[in-house]
Amino acid sequence: LDQHKEKSLSKLISKMLRHTPKAFGLALDPEDGSCTLDALLASIQAQPRWGWVTKEHIELVVRQSDKQRFEIIDARIRARYGHSHDRVSYAPADPPAILYHGTNKNALPSILLEGLKPMGRQYVHLSEGTHFATLAGSRRGELVILEVDTDSARQAGVTFYYAGNEVWLADHVPAASCAMM
Ligand code: HQG
User: Which Pfam families match (predicted)?
Assistant: First the structure.
């Protein structure tokens, strides 16, 4: 699988598991957002130009994902994070004292005013280290990394959820809990 095809397949799977499963005839488990690998494979193969995909291709994309976007457990696959509204429920968890959020310079004034909002996704995305935050924030212009003080956010009523592999999620983070690095 060449790199271009691998990336396209990863994007297709992201779309199917995070955003519009129904448009692909895919029913996801309402709790964890998973489906069987077989169901995903059948839905991919049914797409024009994607008939050549095999289960090994999907496993390769899952394994190679720089940000561990997906996970396969017991022949079921799901996106670990990144969903649009109402797709997956996570158990609340205790975060480290500081989490990072990567964003861009243009979004900063609005974030410092109203805090971090999920925008088009189900949750705000945060990470334990700056690597993930850097990748996320570098996508749309000049990178800015924010430090989130999770204790103060929790005192303000924010619940944090762990999505695995250093990624944390929250419904909202007040501006008062965000500081520029
Ligand atoms: C910003 C991708 C204005 C926020 C990434 C971000 C990540 C505000 C953008 C994962 C705001 C939303 C998630 C406010 C937040 N005013 N802008 N009040 N609050 N924002 O893509 O965190 O590669 O929905 O800073 O790399 O960037 O697709 O969220 O810039 O891992 O796997 O609004 O998705 O992963 O953008 O990215 P997004 P995100 P994949």
Answer: PTS_2-RNA (PF01885)
User: Token pair 């976007």 is at which residue?
Assistant: 69
Instruction: Ligand 1: list residues with CB < 6 Å.
Output: 14, 67, 69, 82, 103-104, 107, 110-111, 114, 116-117, 119-121, 125, 135-136, 139-140
| Cβ density class 56-75: b for 16+ within 10 Å, e for less | ebbeebbeebebbbbbeeee
Say what the pTM is: 0.93
| Closest atom of ligand 1 to CA, residue 81 | 10
Q: What is the pLDDT of residues 22-36, one digit of tens each?
A: 999 999 998 899 999
> Are residues 177 and 149 in contact, defined by beta-carbon separation less than 8 angstroms?
yes
How many helical (H) and strand (E) elements, i.e. helices and strands, does the chain have?
6, 9
